[in-house]
Amino acid sequence: MARAVTTQHKTIATAAAWVVALLIFFPILYTIITSFKSEQEAIQGFNLIPSGTFESYSEVQQQSGYFKFFFNSVLLSVGSTILALIVAIPAAWSMAFSPTKRTKDILMWMLSTKMMPAVAVLFPIYLIFRDSGLLDSRIGLTVMLMLINLPIVVWMLYTYFREIPGEILEAARMDGASLWNEIIYVLTPMAVPGIASTMLLNIILAWNEAFWTIRLTTTNAAPLTAFISSFSSPQGLFWAKLSAASTLAIAPILIMGWFSQKQLVRGLTFGAVK
Amino acid sequence: MATQQTRSIARFMMAPSVILLFVWMIVPLLFTLWFSLLQYNPLNPIRDGFVWFDNYKLFYSNPAFLYSILNTLTIVVSVLVITVVGGILLAMLLDQPIWGQGIVRILVISPFFVMPPVAALVWKNMIMHPQYGVFADIARFFGAQPIDWFGQHPLTAIILIVAWQWLPFATLILLTSLQSLDGEQKEAAEMDGAGFLSRFWYLTLPHMSRAITVVILIQTIFLLSIYAEILVTTNGGPGYASTNLPFLVYQKALLEFKIGQASAGGVIAVILANIVAFFAMRAVGKNLDK
Interface pTM (ipTM) of the complex? Predict the structure, then answer.
């Protein structure tokens, strides 16, 4: 028997939830609104209705070449994610389907590398990058982001792969499928949703990574995190431009994020909360 | 049934991940340990040499180091309290039947996807700016003096920004956990005449306990290494008022080139993180057995 919900109760709850949600969303909303104002308007006090100009957007591109940074962000986040998947899929596959006594320890150890604070290795990494000419290179940073997120990728894939029933694999083996056929025809179709969610979450994490992307780049390989940070020393009035740049920087990931709420919970809690 | 062959294939498939992670973790960490025992300054190499634990002594002789640890812990604890308490309340609110639940969820979760520099700059300039920010507008509307957040309360300002970023995460996970609570149990408790508070205390809270643990542990990992938010807002100042350990290490290493001191700071950061990791591992590990 379902509990009867009174309309009054629902109205109050709805009102409260919407007020809180709008308050939490407000800084983002206000940024989007301000991005359509002129610089003059942007500092004239609180105002929710912009004049609807696009001038900040074109100025951001003209003055600082916004799309170069955007392109770097796409390249770094997608590139590092694909690299991580290539390395992690075999590992997660073998841990899920041929676990040994040490599988759990290895998983735990991988997770522990994620807990190492980045600053602890800042200078050695900086030296290694400088001496091998990787500072401000897209390849160096792609590898770096891949390594940072590798433990999460392995873990997420592992939790997805583990849900694929092992009996199906055994049946395929009984029917004489080779390892290769097993992977192509049996495993892949069942694993694709898990791999896709892992990919989605990892692109989000790589896109927003804001320590190494800022410290290991200057201009060439700098993604949006570094570009936005360069706004921290204000020269003149730049509210509307900052808003336009910010809106562009967060829009793609915000939309991806909305679609990946469920996977987010699972991926970031290492399968502990579903 | 793992045969010898499949077992060696398995080992072969795992090798790249394990080797990569091992090298990436161990090699730089050994460097850091070694550097932390040296006086090493690329700008002033004459005084370089082996100094044993002198760099670590700075942690109780140099106020900057002490401040940075205190600030690190203040940020972690304050943000945890705000996000966990706020997250529980918000999750319970969103768990009610409401109109437009999908949209409300999207609005609430959004800040989590905003990259740290954007979050920090938006708050710094558009919300908390003492002249043009929304908070200043509100203060003037009520005839009050606007607060200079980053000048007078830099740490509080950073805590607010970081809490805004992490509240959605806590809410989403606690809500997920709350939705798996058996409705019949709730009804039974209600029939037995349990009030709202006792239902919350004896039913809801115990049910959420694991999710709460997970939220605390995961957030702590990230909160211990807050960096971009400080870089673009206060730059650690005024003085050391908002410098945390990661930021101090960055300053020592890449601005002052005091590599020995920076490395000692890094080692302390590892020890702090390990204390947390120890508990995190146990909690997550328990779940694996199920």
Answer: 0.83
